[in-house]
Design brief:
Helix 6 packs parallel to helix 7. With 220 residues, this protein is α/β, with parallel strands linked by helices. The strands form two sheets. The chain has a three-stranded parallel beta sheet with strand order 1-3-6, with helices on one face. The chain has one domain (4-215): Alpha-Beta Barrel (TIM Barrel). Helices cover 46% and strands 13% of the residues.
Length: 220
């Protein structure tokens, strides 16, 4: 059976999206723009192998598309790959229905296009590798995605174990959003690096690369 945490996470995601839209509708007359802010760690394929390429895109959809696709895509609703994988795995785990709740048609239409802009938090990049594993009775987000993430040891470190400095991932994330969601208005709400103290040399080394990534040719 699904754990309480798993059920709460999925249901909270669905209910949170619906609540956001309903609240937005109530205050439309008070504000000019209403948006949503999402974190997007760029997911790069670990190799050029087709399986790793597919795994990277699947993980992007599971981690970012989970909330972005219902709002910013033309079709609305959850990403197809997310729906198909969780539906199939839920069946193999003998659940009476999919662990991914379904929106009604009215909810899909209400949520779709409900944000005027996308607030984007971006800090780092990970490499995705395909992982074939047997379906276990205990639900697993990693198993649902079908891939594993890692980072290169030679990528510059920060004061956070999960944050490696990968400026080129910023540009790839922006371009992916542009192509996937028809060039929405994007406001970068968070970006940076955690340091033990202000290290001028490291900032001077990192900041120009990050700025170049966000202002290079092909910008949104």
């Amino acid at each position: 059976m699904a754990t309480n945490g798993e059920r709460r996470s999925v249901m909270a995601g669905r209910q949170g999206m619906i609540s956001q839209v309903r609240n937005a509708i109530k205050i439309l007359n008070l504000w000019s723009y209403i948006g949503i802010t999402l974190d997007f760690r760029w997911i790069e394929p670990a190799t050029t192998a087709e399986q790793d390429q597919r795994a990277a895109e699947t993980i992007r959809q599971f981690t970012f598309g989970w909330f972005a696709h219902p709002i910013f895509s033309k079709s609305g609703d959850y990403p197809r790959i997310m729906r198909s994988r969780i539906d199939a795995i839920s069946k193999l785990q003998h659940f009476p229905r999919s662990r991914l709740p379904s929106f009604t048609k009215d909810e899909v239409e209400m949520i779709k296009g409900s944000a005027d802009f996308l607030g984007l938090n971006h800090y780092t990049t990970s490499l995705a590798s395909f992982k074939e594993s047997k379906v276990t009775p205990q639900p697993s987000f990693s198993e649902d995605m079908g891939g594993v993430l890692k980072q290169k040891s030679d990528w510059p470190k920060s004061n956070s174990t999960w944050l490696r400095v990968v400026p080129w991932g910023f540009r790839k994330a922006l371009n992916w959003v542009k192509d996937a969601y028809n060039n929405p208005l994007v406001i970068v709400t968070e970006n940076g690096i955690s340091l033990e103290a202000l290290k001028t040399l490291e900032l001077h080394r990192w900041l120009p690369q990050s700025l170049a990534s966000s202002n290079s040719e092909g910008q949104m």
